[in-house]
Amino acid sequence: MFRKTAVRLLCFATVILALAAGYAGTVQAADPVKIKFILNWKWQGPQAWFFIAQDKGWFKEEGLDVQLDQGSGSAAAVTRVASGAYDAGFGDINAITRFKSEHPDHKMKAVYMIYNVPPFVIVSLKEKGIKSPKDLEGKVLGASANDAAFKLFPGFVGATGIDDSKIEWQHMKPSLRQQMLVRGDVDAVAGYYITVKFGLKNMNFDPEKANFMFYSDHGMDLYSNAIIFSGDMIEKHPDAVKGFLRAVNKAFFYVLDNRDEGIDAAMKRERLLKRDVEMGRLVETIDWLIVSPEMKEIGMGDVKDERLSRSIKIVSDTFGLKRTPDANEIFDRSFLPAKADRMAK
User: Fold this and answer.
1) Tens digits of per-residue pLDDT, 278-337?
2) For residues 87 and 231, what is the distance between their CA atoms, to the nearest angstrom?
3) What residues does CATH 3.40.190.10 cover in the chain?
4) pTM recorded for the entire structure
5) How far, CA to CA in Å, does 207 sit from each of 83, 131, 148, 201, 289?
6) Separation between Cα atoms, residue 5 and residue 23, nearest integer Å
7) Which CATH superfamily includes the segment(s) 33-117+223-342?
8) 285 CB-near residues (< 8 Å, 6+ apart)
9) Tens of pLDDT along 192-211?
């Protein structure tokens, strides 16, 4: 009798263990969360942290299957996420402000600030003699229609008091912007400092022969590019959002110490890139747009609420928005990694 009971108990335990093992296997085999992510631009050195996070398997370690796609402008990235075409992207936070003004119930938000310093510039060749905003009057300016610097130009006009009725705009494909500037087809172009400067360098044109007029020097102290996530991802997959940010944050600090490897990752995706140009682009992006005194104080990825509120008001006044969104509608820091993990060493 005792022996039969023992055998039954042993069989019962075996079944329980088998079921537990099967359940554990089911958990481990759970499908990864798929994230379609659109970048701000074509493959470039300053996107290295996204590439490294993918190539090192750090997205995969977080249970994510991430698809990285090239973009066509920082403002366009916001539009693509808002439309549902992408789950997340690297786009201009100011474009979110404009969108949320008209769509207050939309849950898309920025969750990780990368460009702490605004990169918006007007670039002209020195031979044109354009040294101040007033000198832009009577000139032909060029830009991609989706470029964030072009979309924010009305704010630049308001801050400087120039007469924009005396300025003519010509739109072109982003790939033609620097060419048209050098050829003299336009007198100046609007764009991102790093993009235009190294676009000129890529053409073997010396950037020292150009003047760079920064928006930030004329009353427009804005935040810029951030990682944004759709409301659907934020609500349904909050842990995936956190995991994505952990992977990118880890990759960012890895790239700080391994910049050659970061450029290797970019060039693997586009063999026509020039290594020296992309390295320069990466270094200046880090030094000029990211590692600022504010970033060193609050950590990578975060913002100061009061500055963000001022930034939102600038955008609201610039475009005459019917409704000025609150800062908490635009940025959500709850998904950020711990501050200790986001501090510059």
Assistant:
1) 999 999 999 999 999 999 999 999 999 999 999 999 999 988 999 999 999 999 999 999
2) 9
3) 33-117+223-342, 120-218
4) 0.83
5) 37, 15, 21, 6, 18
6) 27
7) Periplasmic binding protein-like II (3.40.190.10)
8) 45, 46, 194
9) 899 899 999 989 999 999 99
